[in-house]
Design brief:
Elements (H helix, E strand, L loop, with lengths): L1 H20 L4 H4 L14 H6 L14 H8 L14 H13 L8 H8 L14 H6 L5 H4 L32
Helix pairs in contact: 4-5
The structure holds heme C (2 copies).
One heme C binds next to helix 8.
């Protein structure tokens, strides 16, 4: 049932995109910002400041309260000091909140929220129940391979992660 629904969703998305392709500029036809499964919103400060050590993780994968907690503790960020000036920090937080999993705007966000305890504010996408379940099939040993490093290194497997693309067609687990 799940797969059937997903199949229909994919077909519908493909249909919509190919229709849009005739009428919209290239960026919109690719679905940037307009894809409601995994939206690809953009913000200059976020892109610049949050992609220097790792991928700028899609905002729709954590709820607002998680982003607030994370942005309020940047000086002690997973063992790094990722502190920012207050204006930049506030701008990025506004952007993350506006596009968070619980803003209701994306199907991906709904999936993440469905599996999250009401009051949970995880700091890691990789520790959300959604993530763990979705990556069930990934062999445990793969996470710690040298070529991967950690589950947080999305781009090791998702070849177009930098562009915000995480679909099945662009995944390959490296040796
Ligand atoms: C100075 C380096 C640095 C900067 C800058 C930085 N981070 Fe991180 N971030 C890290 C490290 C290190 C980790 C842990 C990675 C790991 O476990 O492999 C991390 C992890 C994360 C995680 C959890 C990933 C997971 O496991 O799901 C999130 C979310 C995150 N960062 C968001 C941000 C945001 C938002 C910004 C911009 C405001 C940012 N980071 C800027 C170093 C940085
Ligand atoms: C070791 C490789 C690996 C890493 C690292 C990894 N993934 Fe994945 N991911 C996969 C595989 C394989 C699938 C396909 C699972 C399936 O469809 O059964 C997947 C599926 C997904 C999907 C679902 C795509 C869809 O079409 O439903 C999303 C979203 C996703 N990953 C996001 C992430 C994010 C975000 C990160 C980093 C925080 C990450 N992944 C890290 C291997 C990885």
């Amino acid at each position: 049932m799940n797969y059937l629904l997903r199949g229909i969703g994919v077909l519908a998305a493909v249909g919509t995109i190919s229709m849009l392709a005739f009428s919209l500029p290239a960026s919109e036809a690719r679905g940037d910002g307009g894809d409601d499964l995994m939206p690809r919103p953009a913000n200059k400060n976020w892109q610049q400041e949050c992609s220097s050590c790792h991928l700028a993780y899609p905002p729709s994968l954590l709820p607002k309260a998680s982003w607030q907690r994370l942005m309020n503790g940047l000086d002690q960020h997973f063992g790094e000091n990722a502190g920012l000036d207050p204006a930049t920090q506030a701008d990025i937080l506004r952007f993350l909140e506006a596009n968070a999993a619980d803003n209701g705007g994306s199907r991906m966000g709904k999936r993440v929220m469905q599996r999250l305890d009401a009051k949970a504010t995880p700091l890691r996408i990789t520790e959300t129940a959604w993530f763990v379940r979705k990556h069930d099939d990934v062999p445990r040993t793969a996470w710690s391979r040298k070529s991967v490093g950690s589950a947080a290194n999305c781009a090791a497997c998702h070849r177009q992660a930098e562009q915000g693309v995480f679909d099945d067609d662009t995944v390959r687990i490296p040796k």
